[in-house]
Each structure stands twice: as C-alpha cells, then as structure tokens.
Amino acid sequence: MAQTKTYILGIESSCDDTSAAVSLNTQILSNVIATQKIHEQYGGIVPELASRAHLQNIIPVVAEAMKLAGVTLQDLDAIAFTKGPGLLGSLIVGTSFAKALSLSLNKPLIDVHHMKAHVMALFIDNEANRKPNFPFLCLTVSGGHTQIVKVSSFQKMEVIGSTIDDAAGEAFDKCGKIMGLSYPGGPLIDKLAQIGNPSRFQFAKPKVDGLNYSFSGLKTSFLYFIQAETKKNKEFVQENLTDLCASLQQTILDILFIKLEKAVQQEGINEIAIAGGVSANLGLRDRLNSYEKTKGWKVYIPEFQFCTDNAGMIAVAGYYHYLASEFTDLSVYSESRISLF
C-alpha cells in the first residue's frame, strides 16, 4: 500500500531564530531560518529585541518556506509550532501566528516540545538512511539544556540525567565571552580548538551524583584562571587562545561523555545519538564517531542544518504527532518552561 502524503508546516521561534519548514512525511522540502545579528553587540540574547525581530521575520520566512517547498497553504495537512520551552515573548509570536493560520485555513494545529523536536530531528530523511532504533539514548546539548534522554518510542521519552545548573552550550558561550570572543562563542571555540593543544591546560570537572551534570563550577574556575594569568601577562589570552579553546572544549566533552558512558552501562543500550545546538560541535561529533569503533556503539548524528534551532525538526515532530492524532486547539498557550513529559 502506498504511503499517504502528509504535508506539515513547522514553525520555530523559541529563541532568536525565526524558522519555517515544510515536510512531506519525514522528508524536509524546505527549511528557512532568519537569524538575528543584533544580539552580537550585547554578548547574549536580549528577549525584547528577539520577539520584535520575530514579528518582522515570521511572515516572509513562512512565505519563503512555502515557495521553496512548491506547495500551497491549502495543500497543508496540519500546522506544527514550538509551544516551549524558550523565551516567552519569542514563543508567543510563533504560537499566535500558527493559531491564526490554523483558524484561517481550518487546518489541524499541533504543539511541539522544543527539546523533543531536537530528538525527532534524528528521524528526518538523510542520505545515509540512518535512523536510530528504539530504545536509544540521546545526549541533547544546547545553550539552555543538557540532558541524557532514554527514548523508548516516538511518544515515550524519559530524562535520566540533566544539568543541575548551567547547560554545556552556555558554558561554551560564557567562557568565550571571558576570552573576548564574539557571541555566540561556542562555534568559535570549536573552530579554534581544532588547531590547539587540548592537554595544555587543566580545568575543573565538577562531581555530581548519578547521571546529572554541572557546568557552573567549570565556568567559575575558568574565569579565575584567566584573571590570574592576565594579571601576570595582559596578552595571555591572545598568546594562548587556541590552546585555551582546545583545553576548554576537551574538558566539556570529558564531562559529557563520562556521564554518557555511565548511562550506557546502566541502561544496557548501545544505540546512541546526539541532538541540540551543540551537536553541531565538530569535537563532539568526532568523539562520538570514534566511540562507534572503540566501544561498539551504534551512533546517530543529525545533519548540521538540523542541529541548531530549526523548523525542520518541528515539522517532522509534528508529522509523528499527526500520525498519532495528537492535536491541540486555539486555547493552547506558550510556556517558557515545560516538562518533557
């Protein structure tokens, strides 16, 4: 029997990227992202400016996504959007637009959990045709979240480990700011780390019970180290920038993988995936790929375009909600904090 064609419009506006995508089942036909450069001068996201930019971007972004996909609004089977978590003002823009479009077209409305969508990005069609088998463990790492998720089905996901304070992505960005790098610092640290010595400097690795993480102590120790060395030599950071980045990145990856290895042993699962914005980090991707050979893990990594915040992952998550007849109505509202369950 031929598979039914289902077109989903996905809308993502949880932070500072306005994105729209159209999916045909698990194939992404278009994935348009409008980034906001204005935050670079502030060294971080300014929520009010982010929500205003979403208001300016959302109509042209959706129009471009529909055009590139080659479908009309009437062709859509449903509209999926990010309900949360995220910046409330930003979320409200996407939620309001999706609700208005659903009402005007009389199309079903689907609310999507942002972090669950990052996991669902692993099921987007790809050239290698590699998709994880259930159950699998997914290390979701972003600027706001660091979690180990046990994924038993499309509907059943359980957080078995999480950060008790800061996220790994935040640690990258804040330490980048300490070194004077532009925002966001994470991608720049990753780039510079490729040519640095990862064993040059040693930084704190906080000890936390169970499968949980902590990165606030690392940020503090890194700050004090830089301050102490800069007092001796004002040019210390510039003279040692690549080694600092490489050492910092290795420390963060060590922290992540110590707990991930523990989770693999605890759960007895060797299907391992990564997701979230930091899954675009080359160091993280290389180390996980190496574990496929050294530890016998079956490894799954999203394509780069589906790692950072994007509507492609919202659309494919919406598709699986659609198959399960999991819809919402116009009374739905955005939530800046929302449980994975």
Give the arrangement of secondary structure elements.
Elements: E1 7-12, E2 18-24, E3 27-34, H1 47-69, E4 78-84, H2 88-105, E5 109-113, H3 114-120, E6 136-141, E7 146-151, E8 157-162, H4 168-178, H5 185-193, H6 216-232, H7 236-239, H8 241-267, E9 271-275, H9 282-294, E10 298-300, H10 311-323
Helix pairs in contact: 1-2, 3-10, 4-5, 4-6, 4-8, 5-8
Write up this protein:
- The two termini are 34 Å apart.
- The relative contact order is 0.19.
- The protein folds into two domains: 7-121 and 307-323, ATPase, nucleotide binding domain (Nucleotidyltransferase, domain 5), CATH 3.30.420.40; 132-302, ATPase, nucleotide binding domain (Nucleotidyltransferase, domain 5, 2-Layer Sandwich).
- A hairpin with a 5-residue loop joins strand 1 (7-12) and strand 2 (18-24).
- The strands form two sheets. Strands 3-2-1-4-5 form a five-stranded mixed beta sheet, sandwiched between helices.
- The protein is α/β, with parallel strands linked by helices and 341 residues long.
- The model has no long low-confidence stretch (mean pLDDT 95).
- The protein has helices spanning 47-69, 88-105, 114-120, 168-178, 185-193, 216-232, 236-239, 241-267, 282-294, 311-323, and strands spanning 7-12, 18-24, 27-34, 78-84, 109-113, 136-141, 146-151, 157-162, 271-275, 298-300.
- 42% of the residues lie in helices and 17% in strands.
- Helix 4 packs parallel to helix 6 (216-232) and helix 5 (185-193) packs across helix 8 (241-267).
